[in-house]
């Protein structure tokens, strides 16, 4: 009986993570939520946003992600997100983040790359 309850709880948790993943632009910060896990990233702390492909543990449910740098070190200052509309996400992010640097050197090229495979 305990195994059944544990199995149902585990499946429920996985569904919560999968279907409870979203990103929301708030007044002063970006809210990244994945089930019970969440992160509030103040816009003033975001210094770069760039396309990233890979399979790492993150707030992203896809291997096609956007890497957000918002701190001094890699562990606590990097968040990966995978919004459905990545081009629109980057455009909105750029309007809200005063310290966001263009990491590609050319916004048009970066957005064109996102349209292709992201």
Secondary structure elements and pairings:
Elements: H1 2-19, E1 21-25, E2 29-34, E3 37-42, E4 48-53, E5 64-69, E6 78-81, H2 86-96, H3 107-117
Antiparallel strand pairs: 1-2, 2-3, 4-5, 5-6
Strand content: 25-35%
Question: According to CATH, what is the topology?
Answer: PH-domain like
Q: Which sequence of strands runs across the widest sheet?
A: 1-2-3
Q: Decide which structural class fits the backbone.
A: alpha+beta
Per CATH, the architecture is Roll
Report helical residue fraction. Answer: 25-40%
Q: Can you tell me the number of structural domains? A: 1
Order of helices and strands: HEEEEEEHH
How many H/I helical runs? 3
Number of strands: 6
Amino- and carboxy-terminal Cα gap:
44 Å
* Gross geometry: elongated
Low-confidence parts, pLDDT < 50 over ≥5 residues? 107-118
Overall pLDDT confidence? 78
- CATH classification class: Mainly Beta
Radius of gyration, CA atoms, in whole angstroms: 16 Å
Query: Tell me about the biggest sheet?
Result: 3 strands, antiparallel
Brief rundown of the structure:
By secondary structure, the chain is an alpha+beta fold.
Structure description:
- This protein has 118 residues and is α+β, with helices and mostly antiparallel strands.
- It has a single domain (2-117), classed as Roll (PH-domain like), CATH 2.30.29.
- Helix content is 34%, strand content 28%.
- The strands form 2 sheets. The protein has a 3-stranded antiparallel beta sheet. Strands 4-5-6 form a 3-stranded antiparallel beta sheet, covered by helices on one side.
- Residues 107-118 have low confidence and may be disordered.
